[in-house]
Structure formats: structure tokens, C-alpha cells
Amino acid sequence: MTAAGAEERFRRLHRETYADLLRFVERRVPADDAEDIVSTVFLTAWRRLGELPEDARPWLFAIAHKTMANRTRSWLRRRALDVRLMSVENTTAPDGAAGTAARIDLERAWRTLSVADREVLALVAFDGLTSEQAATVLNCRRSAFAMRLARARSRLQAALEPAAPAHPRTVKEQQSWTKA
Amino acid sequence: MDESMKDLDRLAVLDPARNREPSAEEWARAEAFVDRVVAGSPAVSGSPARSGSPARSGSPAVSGLWDRRRWLVVGAAAAAVGAVAAFGVPALVPGAAEKAVASWTALPAARSGAEVLPQAKICAGNDVGGGASPTVNPSDVLLAEQRGEATLLVLRKSNGVVVECLGVGDDQLASMSLTEGTPKVPAGTINLETMSSLGEGDTMWSNIVGLAGDGITGVEVRLDNGKVVQASVDNGWWAAWWPGPEGGEADALTVTVTAGDKTTSYRPSDLP
What we know:
The complex is a heterodimer of chains A (180) and B (272).
Chain A: H1 3-26, H2 31-47, H3 56-76, H4 96-112, H5 115-125, H6 131-138, H7 142-160
Helix pairs in contact in A: 1-2, 1-3, 2-3, 3-6, 4-7, 5-7, 6-7
Chain B: H1 24-40, H2 60-66, H3 78-85, H4 96-102, E1 109-110, H5 117-124, E2 141-147, E3 150-156, E4 161-168, E5 171-180, E6 194-198, E7 205-211, E8 216-223, E9 228-230, E10 232-234, E11 237-243, E12 253-259, E13 262-266
Antiparallel strand pairs in B: 1-2, 2-3, 3-4, 4-5, 6-7, 7-11, 8-9, 8-12, 10-11, 12-13
């Protein structure tokens, strides 16, 4: 690839994926930190442009995921990268009280899930990835991701069912982000 | 989303980035960054990556971006380097980093708290971790090692915060807080508190530090370039540093843990 060709490809990649990557990162870390992480990912992509697969978006997300996981350890000493939630206070409910109640139920159910379950669900429901792309992000086989997703969906469904027996899973509180 | 995943549609209301679009200012900053990147260094050609196997971030520049928040540069030159750090470029006390890197050894020499008390007082005297400690005792030093001219310390300050310091003689290169209280990990296991890199070019260096459970007799850091670094283990902590960028990269090394006759190797991302 010529230098001009590499630059053109990189700029096109940036144009096509920057917004998606920013959203992917902001779902997991505070907005203040997101731009820095996205820059790190694109710098990596530039340095390894010749290695990027044709479908580069999952590759970029995978680099971002690794970067965030590593930083999370240092900043918060948490044990896992977690998906954030849109706070109730910041949302409007166009469909009224019923919609609000459903959303609260959904959020409650979401919080009962493990960090790992939330991540596999978010990769599909929030980030819009296919199972194959999500498997790339988590560096696992597609079949393994599909199994994890099926289990996570099942646990989410169980947590949403009002007639379900008391759930033995410990409720995990959403941890708040603070600067180290 | 796959058609079969439509039951997940309802989760969209929880999406923290729902309807999020970059602002004009964000686009402008991002495009300016792209301009700087393409102007700064050539892209690296190579064979296409295998699907499902993302490449590691592997440039010093990435590492520099990665870790600028973690280490605080302290000591006599702090004011001067602080001005540089505001631009996001990690900096070190001039000369000290060169000495540390030039004299570095893969095998550390263990030091007692009493032996490193002068360096411990300097380490405890900075504001990292919530303030300076008025007094320092040898027992406050949880781990101390010497590699050439550089001394690495893991130290408990009087406020209970555990900090890490790296210095050469009376010159501190950097310091950062690690944890509070007395956390422990199960016997025979380790965790990774953090790893990072700092500096640029020939004086870039990396560190890695974590908790070590009872029974851990050795920790070794094997870089992907083949270099092997023996870590120090003491008082429930393990730590090492080395010249190079790997601490700021994603899984560019392997940590091998020995507990008795059992040896286990981990990629950093696999460590708790």
C-alpha cells in the first residue's frame, strides 16, 4: 500500500467508525475519558493498518475493550469493566408512566445480572454487533459467545418475570465512577 | 442486530449512548488528531489479522497516551515537568530516567526497609496518595528492590494509602497510589493492581505491580520480545519494572507465578 493509499484508508476508517467507537467507549467509561481512549485506538490502528481485517469495526472495538479493561484496573481497582446505564434522571418517558415502570423493571433486572452477562448483552443490544463480531471483541469463539449470550438472555428474562421465584443471585450495585 | 435477537430491543432504553452523536467540536478534535497521526509516523504494513485475534497496541506513542494519568512525576523538577504533563506528554526528572534505564538489571536485589529508609522518606514525603507522611519507619516499606541505580518501593503511608515509588538516589522518577487498607488475595494466587509505561523513546519504562497471596515464591515477567524480568515478591505484594513500552500495551507480556512446585502463566488480561 502506498503512503497516500494508507492515509486515505485510515481517514476513511476514521470517518466511518469514529462515532461508533466513541459510543462504544462511552457506554463503558465516563465521557471525559472516552476521547483519550478512542485516540489511543486509532493510533494503534494507524500503526497496524496493514493488519486490519476488512471488517475493522470489531477489531477497533476489541482494542478499545482491552484498553478500557486495563485502565479500569488502575483507575478504580475494580475487577471488571462494566457497562454503564443511562440514569433514570436523565431520561424522558415518551410513553408515560407505564413506560417508566417498564424501564425501572428492566433496569432492576439488568442490575441483577453479572458484569459478564451485561457485557455480552450490551455488545448486541447497545453496540449492535453480530455474535461473530462480538466474539472478536471478547477474543473468544463465536460458539462460546453464542452460548454466553443465550445464558445471559435467559437470566435477563428470568429476572424480568414477576412470577419468578426469589432470585438467588446477589444483587450487584452499579459502582460509581470516580477518578483515581 | 440478528433477527433472532429482537427480544433485546427493549434494552435500548438503558443504552447510555443512545442517540449520542459526536459534536462538531469533537469531530474537529478527532480530525485534528488524525492529521497529527498521519503527519507523525508511517503506517505499518503487514499481513491481514486473523479474524477474532485483534493485534496488540504496540507503539510507544500509544503507551504514552495510555498512562499519563497514573504516575505523578515528583521531586525537584516537578514544577517544570508538570507544565509538560499538561500536554499529556509524560516526563521524568532529567537524567534520572537515563541512569535508571542504563543501569537496569533483569534480576533485582532485595532491600530491607532500613536499607532504603532515605528513599522511603522521599517517597512518603510527596503528596501522592492524599498527602505526605510526617514519619516513616522501616516497617512501612512493604517491598523494596534495587535494579542498578534505581530503587523501587511499595510503601504504606501514614494515612493507610499504599503507594509505589521509583527513584534514583534522591531523585524520584515517579510515584502513584495503589490501594488503601490491607487487601489480600487468596493463597497461591496473585492479582494485577496495575501496569503502565511512562516516558518516551530510549527512556520509556514500564512497571507492573499487584498483590501476592501466601505461598507465592516467585513471579516472572516474560515480555513478548523474549526478555525475562524477575519480579520482587514481599509482604503480600509483587512488582517489577523494566525499560520499554510493554506495560502500556495490551497483553504484550506473560506473568508466570510460582507457588511451591506449581507454575502458572497468565496474560495480564487474565489476571484478576
